[in-house]
Amino acid sequence: MIADVASSLDAWQADQSNAIHLLHETGDIIAGVILVKKYWNLCNLFVDPTEQRKGAGRALLEAVVPLCQRRSPRGKLMVHSSTVALPFYEACGFVRTGPGIERAGGCVPLELVFPTPEEGA
User: Which one, of 28, 62, 37, 32, lies nearest residue 47 by Cα?
Assistant: First the structure.
């Protein structure tokens, strides 16, 4: 997982115009981070364990959704979630799109489809 995160951050640094990387700070600590590549691929959303269930993850997601909604070529935000994070993503409106992938911690595909302008986006 650390290698995946490092690779995602390297990709963001190489092409910051095609990705969003945000931090959520609580006081003087970084409570969480989010990385979305190509405005549809939610690569990483991590919250410090001591800050979980305090709104950092939701705040990060709520910050990137409008940015992605305007720029996503797919009209949605997609993520492969760990099984532990499934309830969080589902509470935020994501729906499962297929079976999980065999991987430590699980890897379940989810998506958040953006409303079209006709639907009142």
Answer: 32
| pTM of the entire predicted model | 0.84
Tell me the C-alpha distance between 37 and 114, whole Å. 16
Type of residue numbered 31: A
The amino acid sitting at 42 is L
Three-state DSSP string of the chain: CHHHHHHHHHHHHHCHHHEEEEEEEECCEEEEEEEEECCCEEEEEEECHHHCCCCHHHHHHHHHHHHHHHHCCCCEEEEEECCCCHHHHHHCCCEECCCCCCCCCCCEEEEEECCCHHHCC
Q: Tell me the Ramachandran region of residue 75: left when phi exceeds 0, alpha when psi lies from -120 to 50, beta otherwise.
A: left
* Rg of the chain in Å (alpha carbons): 14
- For residue 32, pLDDT beyond 50: yes
Distance CA 103, CA 90 (A): 20
Mean pLDDT, rounded, for 23-43: 91
